[in-house]
Amino acid sequence: MQKLNPSKIVKNIFSISTGQAFSLIINFVSISLIARALSVDLFGNFNYLLAIATIISKLIDFGFVPIVFREVSQSQLRKNLINTAITLRLIFFVVALLLFNSIAFTLSKDLTEIVLTNIFLLNIILSNKFQNFREILEVTFRVNLSMHIPMTIVVLENIFLLILVMLFPFTSFPPLQYFISIYVLVNLPGFVVILFILKKKYQFNLKFNLENYKWLIKESLPIFGYVALIALFQQLDIIFLKYFSTEYSVGLYSAAMRLTIPFNIFPTALVMTIFPVIVRNIISNQEENKRLILLSYKLLFAFSFLLVLIISFRSEEIIHIVFGKNFIEASLATNLLLWGQVFLFFNFLSVDLFTAHRKQKNNLYYALLILIINTLLIFYFSNKLNHENIAMIKLASTGIGSLFIILLMIKSGIKVKQIKFRIIFFPLFLLGFVALVASLQINIVVYSLIIFVLAIVSMKVLKFVDDEEMSFILNLILKKNKTKIENA
């Protein structure tokens, strides 16, 4: 029976967090340089083509990874499901590629746009950013809490991308074609290395396999619906914005969206690590699960709320530093999308809880609701749609989605340890203090450090995290907790 030391959980969270942090920072710098090299219009077109490729990638996703992750977490005997999922996605990818090009060549006269979209589509196979084939290959690393390996590769890929972006002024290639090409090709070496390590370290061989494919499809269908609908929810904004407004608005909205991407570091790392623990504890230790889930919700809220406050009060300055003065008009849209992240953090963990409890149909209901609300509001305001209005619509949709998830959790009987009323003092105090510090107009780095340190201290003083939870966190960090988590 496999036993996991809690210190290994902390190490895995650290590996994912630091790996994603470095990757996002480096990638963020690359995108910033790309935005500066392109006009606002061309940057909008870059993100428009990327949105099309992203939607297609999610339509062939089929929701396999959470199911495969769950099953392999419970038993290594189920690891053949990894090859089954890869085989099915490869079949779906070929079909989607043929359909897209058939439709594109029939409806579009812009050959360059079609070719560039096809280049982006190669990232479905090669890239970690698209979370498709690479995501399935990473299941083995996730289960073995060895995410430092793929995270290192991702960091190196992003460094390579940054180098090629910086070399652009010394080339004579058309800017849009150059940036899209390198955005894809930098991922090829890492894809090959991942396959090599899986074979050498974990004896995994990539092969055509359709074992249990009917069962996997049936189990994954609700998640597929969720993944596809969420992709539409996330990407249709850009497509609608280009249709109802201008590429200029798309460029501003894309810049605002790019500033929210770093927020995904912490929830991804946390949820990816606690998910197998929660799955094991559902049968053997419900009380431990309640404590772990509540603590996770608290940490997700504190992290998102803190970063939202830091950026919101100085958004114009940050946008100017990152993207240049041409993108300052994206300030309000950035603030609206950032506040929406507080709701999305909550939703991020909740949908995985539904999957762990085999109630993944709820994920589908949630995604369908927010997509319908978002789309209806977009069409209602289509005559005056711009980057700011569409950001407001996204905020409203995610907030309603969070309320709906709470109702689904109550109905599904998923219980969390009771929240104490005193936690409300933490966000109120933090909001007031950040507003005060922001008014002083001090250096932005010093401003951020002051708020971050105060937030950590106030979490303890105001008992946002109580003594029991603080002891639990410190024991993990200091590696003094010798309690073993058994694999049921």
Task: Explain what this protein looks like in three dimensions.
The protein is mainly alpha-helical and 488 residues long. It has one domain. 78% of the residues lie in helices and 1% in strands. It is built from 22 helices and two strands. It has a two-stranded antiparallel ribbon. Helix 14 runs parallel beside helix 17, helix 15 runs parallel beside helix 20 and helix 17 packs parallel to helix 19. The radius of gyration is 22 Å and the shape is globular. The C terminus is likely disordered.
SSE blueprint:
Blueprint: E1 3-4, H1 6-37, H2 40-59, H3 64-74, H4 80-107, H5 111-121, H6 123-126, H7 133-137, H8 139-143, H9 148-166, H10 175-185, H11 188-202, H12 213-244, H13 247-260, H14 265-284, H15 286-312, H16 315-323, H17 331-356, H18 361-380, H19 387-412, H20 425-439, H21 444-461, H22 467-478, E2 485-486
Task: Quickly list its features.
about 0% strand; 22 helices; about 500 residues; single chain; mainly alpha; disordered C terminus
